[in-house]
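ARCHIVE CARD
Drawer: 12
Card no.: 0347
Subject: one protein chain, sequence and derived structure
Cross-reference: see card 0346
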Amino acid sequence: MNRFDDLELIRNYSRQYNFYVKSTDTGPDDRITPHALTACIQEAASLDALSLGFGADDLDKNDIVWILIRNSVRLFHKAGWRDEIVVDTWTNGVSGVFALRDFAVTTSAGVPVAKATTSWILADRITKRPLRTDVLESERMKTIQYSCLGFEAPRIKLLPRTLQDKPVLSLRVGASDIDRNDHVNNTRYIAWCQDVIDVLGKDPSEIRGFDINYISEVIKGEEVMLYGVRADKYLREPIAENDAYLVIGKHASQDRISFSALIYI
């Protein structure tokens, strides 16, 4: 694929944000890692929300925050060290309590890098409970513009036996994992998924995409147990991908799942 066929259409709705791939964004192959790419996507979302009048600077005044709940990313080409990438992003309607936002990522030369669709909630900064505010009622937010992947980021439906396997990794959350909302940032979960894939004997640089659900927040000092299995026997609904792995994070001190992800190799 030399160029997204729908890029011209996308740019009827999107705004563009440019980033350079730093050495710290890459793996041993000098290519951007999935968690570094999601960091660029998150930053573009933040900047775009700010430009539209419902970014962090505006919401902080009322102790309201954006929280990412679901994220689907499909990867096409891994941008390299020192490459400039362009993140197109646009709001794409409201679904229940979710505000939808899509992304298309290319190199500055137009080479396709990734597409993504995300589902966010507005929440109280302290309780993290969802809020229905005027932001979700605005015409700009409610308008469905264009779905670049053709679907909303899905809910991952697990079978009850999923956590019978032993965890493949465990970790304790430190201060460096915590973001401005006082919990583990969504990009860290993607990095944890890469680590699990590596332990399972697969090359994280071969990841072609992922779907992730953020279910309950993880805070500093918590221990997280990470599980990794072939996905086909653990889902309530079949998936089209042949080589998919299910990664689950669980609070070690509680019988509660923090996140679940499908990783496509």
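Annotation on reverse: The helical segments are 7-10, 34-52, 56-59, 134-137, 139-142, 186-199. The chain has two domains: 7-142, 160-264.
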